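Bit of a strange request maybe. I'm writing a small parser for structure token strings and I need a real example to test against, not something I typed by hand. Could someone generate the tokens for this chain?
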Amino acid sequence: MILAIIATAVGVGLGALVGVLAAYRRGWLDELLMRAGDVALAFPQIVLALLFLSIIGPELWLLVLMVGFGHLPRVARVVRGAALSVVERDFVKAAESVGIPRWRIMIGEIVPNISSTLAVEFGLRLTYSIGLVAGLSFLGLGMQPPAADWGLMINENRIALTISPWSVALPVIAIALLTVGTNLVTDGLAKASIGSDKGVTV
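Reply from user aminoacidic:
Good idea to test on real output. This should exercise your parser:
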């Protein structure tokens, strides 16, 4: 769970940076970033993770980076779409007219107004991260014994599936409940942040 949260934070953070930058700067930089994202999306996330983890080994830092970077292009595309409408608003133009640096405008004016989108994306990507980290651990490329991990539990107990199905079913149920609960929590946070977004734009 901790690895999934860190990987999601890395992916959403970098994706938000790329998406806001592309929406604000437009032009050739926007095209370059989005086309690079299209190339990255052409490769399945789990295939890239398996490739690098099989070459370098089941290192936890590499697992976090691979899962996080897999989210980056998808988050960037969604954030760019949300930020495009914010960039054209009057308060952004006013900030530019008084000479506020661009990086401060992006952080202080644009990002707070897409917080609901970021919250939803974080929850959605976290559910993917949980499943992907568990899957890689099941394949022996994630968490290693004696660490406690649901993917490892499923792998270790699958031989006795016909004799003791609950030893496999319980970790699977736990993963399912965690992903559903995560989505419910982030949906609630997103709805709550919509009001704050409106307050920022007034």
